[in-house]
Amino acid sequence: MDRTSHDLPDTVTLQPIGQVVSRRSELTDDHWGDVPAVIRLDAARYGEEALFGLEDFSHLEVVFHFHRVPEEKIETGARHPRGNTDWPLVGIFAQRGKNRPNRLGVSRCTLVKVDGTDIHVLGLDAVDGTPVLDIKPYLREFGPRGELRQPQWAVELMGAYY
């Protein structure tokens, strides 16, 4: 296979656009649904105009960095989700755990309001101080088409998540 025009770069550099401000600072897995948080943009780089029109949406997709996961805890193979041996051994890319190779999180949350460069949300599963890499309005058209399929262990795992 010729990789000359499709070689992967050695690194990708990202700069946070802001950070999460939340009363939740512990890395716990469940009960995120009613947790309020603020995504505070870096006001030195972004003004209020960066958020014009955002309040017209009910939900957001937020990309963030699991900054509190030490590099030595990164998983690249398979593991039992949450260490539960009742659930199958699955690869890191078949689960949404925080110990991923690039420590990237993606979350959908409810937009409550925009106040200057502060975005108030509910249900963002990121702790206080989390670097935010991107924010996008959630569009129904970007949701899955057709029926969803997921294993029973995932349904059990998510039972108390939100």
Automatic annotation (TrEMBL):
Per the UniProt entry, what are the Gene Ontology biological process annotations, in alphabetical order? methylation
Molecular function as annotated in GO:
methyltransferase activity
For this protein, the record's PROSITE patterns field holds:
TSAA_2
Where does the TsaA-like domain lie? 14-147
Gene3D superfamilies attached to this UniProt entry: YaeB-like (2.40.30.70)
Give start-end of the signal peptide: none
Q: Which family does it belong to?
A: Belongs to the tRNA methyltransferase O family.
What protein name does the entry list?
tRNA (N6-threonylcarbamoyladenosine(37)-N6)-methyltransferase TrmO
